[in-house]
Amino acid sequence: NKYDFGLVGLGVMGRNFILNVADNGFTAYGNDLDKEKVEALKQEGGDTAKVDASTDAKTFVAALKTPRKIMLLVPAGKIVDNVIESLLPLLDKGDIIIDGGNSFFTDTDRREAYLKEKGINFFGAGVSGGAKGARKGPSIMPGGSQDAYQHVKPIFEAVSAKYNNEPCVAYLGPKSAGNYVKMVHNGIEYGLMQLTSEIYDLLKKAGNLTNEELHHTYAKWNSGRLQSFLVEITSEIFAKKDTETDGDLVDKILDKAKQKGTGKWTSQNAMDLGIPVPTIDIAVSMREISALKAERTKADELYDRPNPEEVMKKALIEKAENALYFAFIMAYAQGMHQLADASKEYGYNLNLGEIAKIWRAGCIIRAGLLADITEAFQANPELQNLLLAPSFVEKVKGSVKATRELVAYGATNGIPLPGLSNSLTYFDAYTSERLPLNLIQAQRDFFGSHTYERVDKDGIFHTEWEA
Ligand code: 6PG
Asked: Which reactions appear under catalytic activity for this entry (predicted)?
C-alpha cells in the first residue's frame, strides 16, 4: 500500500505538518537524513500504515503513490536545490515537488523552469502559522501549475486552518506566486510586530503601565477591532514569569531582534517595483538598529532625552488603540499594494480578495481586520489601494487624529515611534493631491537638464535656469 503524501525534512515544522496530514485521513511518508528525527516521527505517528518514515530517499520515493506529492520543509537556500537533485533521478514525469519553506521567489522561478523541462511540477507554497499552525492548521499559499494543483488541493484543503469552515489555502497563481505572497505576508508581519512593540514602549514610558496592565490592555484590545494573533500573543507575553528570577520574562529578553530575511526581501523588492511600503521598511531598519546594541549603549551616554511627560492612562490607552488600528491598516494597505503591482509585473494574476481570505486564519498576520480587507477586495478586485476602498474611509478617518497626537507626543518626548510615524506620513502623502516634489523636478532640471512636465499642458520641458 502506497502513501498519499511525502514530506522531506522532519524538523518541528515537517513533523507537525505530516502528523496533521495523517490526522486528516491521508497516509503520509516522511524522509530525513537524521535517524533520530525519523524515529521520533514513527513513534509519534503510531500506526505505520498511516505514517511511516525512512532516512533513505529511494525507500521514501518508492513508498509514494503517483503522481507523487512531495513537500520539502527544509531551510531556504542551497539545501532546497540539494534535496531536489537527490530526488530527481528517483522521480517520474508528472510528480509534484512542493517547497514549503520561505524560499526567495526568483529561486522558485528558477527551480520551476528547471524542473518543468524534466516533466516535474514544482510548487512554491508559503506555509504560515509556526509549529502550532503546521500541526493544527496553517495558512498555505501555493503557486505553480494549476493543473498539478488539483492533485494537491484535497490534502492542502484538509490540513489548512479554517475560517467559517472555509479552508485557508487557495491556488494563488503560476510560478513563484505562492512564495511571493508569503514574502509579502512576512513583510506585513514585520510591520505589525514593530507597531505592537513601539506601542508597548509608549504605554510603558508615557503611561507607566506595568506588565500586568499591559497584559490586560492587549487582551482587551484582542477582544475588539484589533483582534489578531500578534496582539493576542503579545498579551500572553506580558503575563509570562521568568523561571530564573522572580521578574517577568519580557524584561529579561535582550532587545536585539534577529531576522531571516523575508521582511528585508519585501522592502527590497518593493523598491524594485517602485511601490512605497514605509511601514515595512522601518520595521526592517528597526531590527537593524536594535542589533547595534553596543553602539546604542555608547550613544545613549552622549545624548540626553527628555523625561516623558506623564499622561493619563485611560486616555493614553484609548489613543494607542486607535493608533495601532490606524497603523495596522497602513501595513496591510502597503503589502496589498505591493501584491497588486507584483501581480502585473510578474504575471501572477493574483486575486487579492482571495489572498486576504486565506490570511483570515492560520497565519501569523491573521486578524479581524482581514475580514474587512477581504470584503473590500471582493467588492472591487481592481482596488489599487485599501485607502481607496469606501469601506475603509471611516475606519481611517476615525483613528488618524489619535495617531497624530501620539506621533507628536513621541517626537516631543523622545520616544521613538517610527512605525507609527511612517504609517502616518504614508497616509498624509498618499492622500495629498499636491506634494512638494515639483521642487525636486525643478532641481533635477536645474543641475542636470533632466526635464519636467507641467501642470497646465502636456509635453516635456526644460529651462535654462541660470541667466
Ligand atoms: C510564519 C512566519 C515564519 C517566519 C518567522 C521568522 O508565517 O509562520 O513568517 O515563516 O520564518 O516569523 O521570521 P524572521 O526570523 O525573519 O523574524
From this structure: 6-phospho-D-gluconate + NADP(+) = D-ribulose 5-phosphate + CO2 + NADPH
